[in-house]
Specification:
single chain; 2 domains; six-stranded mixed β-sheet; 6 strands; 299 residues; alpha/beta
Length: 299
């Protein structure tokens, strides 16, 4: 009986670095553009041979940038006139769909030189490989486009989002070896040497090339140095987020105390207003009583 994915991960030889490392992800696919081109074709569901023009735009990985908090190590490409952004995101930091929309908007709006016609804006596609479950569905792959809510008519074919959720993959023994897309996603999800070997035996030449590239990259001093910088930046990011959360909690507590004080002051004000109104009513009644009494005495 084949081992489950959980059992393989528990009993297997843990990888020191996994494909979920965005430093590894970018270094590997920048250095091996043929593998990147093949991956993009698979994730977009288009024939590899149909791609006539393919170029990676942001190949640089300066250490001073990688060491900064909130640095994105995504890959921007031009694919037959279309702009494509590819990113792997391991941790769910919240609001990921909005983040994807924001980066799509930046790519889309930066594509039109001043004075050019809007029709010249390129189709812009964001592909996200996620290490967490984002949507309430069983499907690993979700594709989004702007649609009319009743007719489901596409507003424009120039806006597309593809999300691949790795936690929804089956275990490595259940991967369909005939599906190159499943093999790639299982590779990104792999955490043990045994899983890599299984994918090599199942996926043939493509998986062999990808694993060989992985081993070559992770053996370099450059990668190890950049990975240390990235890990440090990750700690700084986590600390910055936690500090922001603490400040938010403190402000919330302060606002809560202020609201409590305000509610108490308002209740006190209303109480004394009621007392004042009652005193005024009694004063008027007393004045009327005195006026009636004086009138009676005159008579």
């Amino acid at each position: 009986m084949p081992l489950s994915k959980a059992a393989i991960k528990d009993k297997g030889t843990k990888l020191e670095y996994t494909f979920k490392s965005d430093v590894l992800f970018k270094m590997l696919f920048v250095k091996y553009p043929d593998l990147l081109k093949r991956l993009v074709a698979v994730l977009l569901g288009i024939p590899l041979e149909s791609i006539e023009y393919f170029q990676t735009i942001n190949t640089e990985m300066p250490p001073e940038e990688i060491g900064k908090k909130f640095c994105r190590l995504d890959i921007n490409m031009m694919v037959d006139g279309k702009k494509v952004n590819l990113e792997i995101q391991v941790e769910n930091e919240g609001n990921y769909p909005e983040r994807s929309m924001f980066h799509w908007a930046k790519m889309f709006t930066s594509s039109l030189p001043a004075g050019d016609d809007y029709s010249l804006l390129p189709k812009t596609i964001v592909i996200s490989i996620l290490g967490f479950a984002q949507f309430d569905c069983e499907e690993v792959h979700s594709e989004f486009a702007p649609l009319e809510v009743k007719r489901h008519e596409v507003l424009s074919d120039k806006q597309r989002y593809h999300f691949y959720e790795l936690p929804k993959l089956p275990d490595v023994d259940s991967i369909d070896a005939a599906s190159e897309k499943d093999l790639w996603l299982a590779l990104f999800n792999a955490e043990t040497e045994e899983e890599l070997e299984k994918l090599i035996s199942s996926g043939g030449e493509v998986m062999s090339q990808a694993v060989e590239a992985y081993r070559g990259i992770t053996a370099t001093e450059e990668f190890k140095y950049l990975e240390i910088l990235r890990a440090r930046a990750g700690h700084d990011e986590a600390q910055a987020i936690r500090n922001a959360e603490r400040r938010g909690e403190q402000r919330g507590e302060q606002r809560g105390e202020q609201r409590g004080e305000q509610r108490g002051a308002e209740a006190e004000r209303q109480k004394w207003q009621s007392v004042a109104e009652e005193n005024e009513r009694l004063r008027q009644e007393l004045a009327e009583f005195k006026a009636q009494r004086a009138k009676m005495e005159l008579n």
